[in-house]
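Re: the request from the purification team.
They wanted to know what the chain is likely to look like in 3D before they choose a buffer screen. I agreed to run a prediction and write the result into the notebook, where they can find it.
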Amino acid sequence: MVSGPKMSIVPADSEQQEPAPARGPKLVSETPVYRHLDVPETTTASDQPRAFPDDRRVGEAIVGGKKDPVAQGIKAPEQPGWFDKVEAFVSRLSMRDNFWNSICSMIWLPLAFFSGIRIKELEPGSFAAQAILPFRRFNRNWYRAMAGGALLANSEIAGGAYVFGICGADYTVVCKNLNYTFLRPCLGPAVYRMNARENIAELVRNAGEFNVTIDMEIMQQAIKGDTRDRRVGRCEATFHVTPKVHHKAKAARRRK
């Protein structure tokens, strides 16, 4: 009788562990050559990029509340104050017509108000004009003739008002030199006929300081028994015209 090999049956609920499955080849990242790539890098101070002071302060004006060095160099244009606005308004108002010119003269130029001088442009846009000085008691002397002081003083007023009317409210006009020649007594209203030697409008377009010379012929208006005007004097006046912005810039430099 032949006996075969013995066989044993292991129950299914046994705690015997199964062998681990066979692994394939290692990943490339696990090889010794590339394994150091997963380690955090340690950098030294010499390896770090150089940071400039201006680069480190970018955004401090917003985040940190500090002043931005770039914004400090940017200055907003100076805005005119209330005094500058009032002055410009009054200057424009004084050139509107003779009525407002008289009101402004009564406050800031009493001599022109009481003398009653009026500026009249001969032709619109022309550089020739005339001013009329009435023959009133304020302008006469004791022997009933036009006072020499009134003729001389109103020469400056007439020439300055003429130049100021062309330049506008953004300029200041100052008389530098005035030569008056008396030819004969004036026994009636005086007429100042003015003519500029230079082209004032062209000088104004250059937006700078300039001098302008005004030639004036002072004539006595024809009175009863006379048919023509008589020349009573001759005047030559030089005015210095300066933009008001130049005065503001000079005052700002003095404050510094």
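For the purification team: Strands lie at 118-121, 128-133, 171-182, 190-196, 210-220, 230-243.
Please add any questions underneath this entry.
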